[in-house]
């Protein structure tokens, strides 16, 4: 594996980055953008299963359905992460520190998330510190593509690729990211319910209690993309550990929005003004024509809200990757340009689940970090998600 090779040859982090940058540059040069038209419908066995989480149940036990369905996959995923860390560091020291020092951190988290994480640790037998670390990952390691689009009849669609696992172990033999491969079996769709009624739906990695992709039927849809920034999520996490706790964990904020906001406007207000541990892009879809925006967040507040109604050229859709929309994307990770090319080639007249899925299945929008694609339609409450795997030739990210 790449992780083992990294340990054995003592590659520095800088050399590791340069090696992967060369790999990406070579892939970008050899793999032309192709706008697929044959990816939809996806294979039946790629569709992600559904389970329910009852918000009326005690937090310590409310995730038991998820754990029952995906507990073994979660244990395998965290075990693989342990192997990766051991190979990178040459010892179990870091994991031992996680088990020891992150356990108290779990008890500083706000309710109900604290008890939910404790309950997941209890039900799986995974050390509490490791379940806490697993829930921290998504503050700082998620790269994605999200699209909000409107067809000519005024129907709004919201879709996303969730890419995860960058730099978390490269398997040379199979040309895959190790953690990404272990994440796919742990994906689950969740219906969050109160009083027997579905409040919202989401796609989660089992054991993660926050929200990255979700739909509130008839109200709004929401996805989160990581925003790379010097004042990044790791700083917020460190501040929290040191006792500065006036900010909200990103995944907890999005979960609160899905549970409590009753409209597109209310969700936008919560997402723009709440101080967070990590910067992010929030892609918000509504339930009426011209709704949809991309909220570019620093840790303190929104620095830009890009409304569809204010978009200069492509007013029928917005596409967001992991770079500020008013700046050029990173040259080795340009999913924006091919994504826009494919959206314009499909056109508004043909827009729907089929074509938006085809766009998200086109390389390099689809890449080796992609774990799933989700498709949402707010007015009907339709929600579909599918595991995605990018076969060679494919961009590494």
TrEMBL record:
All copies of domain Acid ceramidase N-terminal, residue ranges: 47-107
Domain Choloylglycine hydrolase/NAAA C-terminal: 144-329
Signal peptide (residue range): 1-29
Record keyword Secreted present: yes
GO cellular component, one term: extracellular region
Annotated GO biological process: fatty acid metabolic process; sphingolipid metabolic process
Subcellular compartments: Lysosome; Secreted
Keyword set, alphabetical order: Disulfide bond, Glycoprotein, Hydrolase, Lipid metabolism, Lysosome, Secreted, Signal, Sphingolipid metabolism, Zymogen
Pathway(s) annotated for this protein in UniProt: Lipid metabolism; sphingolipid metabolism; Sphingolipid metabolism
Enzyme Commission designation: 3.5.1.23
Keyword Methyltransferase assigned: no
Active site: 144
GO molecular function, a single term: fatty acid amide hydrolase activity
Family membership: Belongs to the acid ceramidase family.
The protein, known as: Acid ceramidase
Organism: Macrostomum lignano
Classification lineage: Eukaryota, Metazoa, Spiralia, Lophotrochozoa, Platyhelminthes
């Amino acid at each position: 594996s790449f992780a083992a090779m990294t340990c054995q040859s003592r590659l520095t982090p800088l050399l590791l980055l340069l090696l992967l940058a060369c790999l990406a540059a070579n892939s970008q040069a050899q793999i032309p953008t192709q706008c697929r038209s044959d990816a939809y419908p996806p294979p039946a066995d790629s569709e992600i299963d559904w389970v329910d989480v009852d918000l009326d149940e005690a937090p310590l036990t409310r995730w038991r359905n998820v754990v029952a369905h995906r507990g073994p996959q979660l244990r395998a995923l965290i075990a693989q992460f342990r192997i990766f860390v051991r190979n990178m560091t040459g010892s179990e020291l870091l994991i031992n520190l996680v088990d020891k020092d992150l356990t108290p951190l779990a008890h500083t988290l706000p309710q109900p998330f604290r008890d939910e994480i404790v309950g997941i640790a209890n039900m799986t037998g995974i050390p509490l510190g490791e379940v806490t670390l697993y829930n921290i990952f998504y503050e700082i390691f998620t790269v994605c593509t999200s699209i909000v689009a409107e067809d000519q009849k005024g129907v709004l669609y919201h879709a996303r690729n969730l890419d995860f696992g960058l730099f978390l172990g490269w398997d040379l033999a199979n040309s895959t990211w190790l953690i990404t491969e272990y994440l796919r079996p742990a994906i689950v769709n969740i219906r969050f319910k109160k009083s027997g009624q579905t409040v919202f739906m989401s796609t989660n990695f089992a054991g993660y209690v926050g929200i990255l992709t979700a739909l509130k039927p008839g109200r709004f849809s929401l996805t989160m993309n990581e925003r790379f920034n010097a004042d990044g999520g790791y700083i917020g996490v460190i501040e929290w550990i040191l006792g500065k706790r006036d900010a909200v964990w990103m995944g907890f904020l999005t979960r609160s929005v899905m549970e409590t906001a009753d409209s597109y406007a209310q969700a936008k207000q919560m997402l723009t003004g709440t101080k967070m541990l990590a910067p992010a892009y929030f892609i918000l879809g509504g339930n009426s024509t011209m709704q949809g925006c991309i909220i570019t967040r620093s840790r303190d507040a929104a620095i830009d809200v890009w409304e569809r109604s204010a978009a200069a050229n492509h007013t029928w859709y917005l596409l967001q990757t992991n770079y500020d929309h008013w700046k050029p994307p990173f040259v080795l990770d340009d999913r924006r340009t091919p994504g826009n090319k494919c959206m314009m080639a499909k056109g508004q007249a043909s827009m729907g689940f089929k074509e938006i899925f085809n766009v998200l299945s086109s390389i390099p929008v689809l890449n080796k970090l992609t774990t799933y694609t989700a498709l949402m339609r707010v007015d009907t409450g339709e929600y579909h998600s599918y595991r995605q795997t990018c076969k060679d030739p494919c961009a590494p990210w």
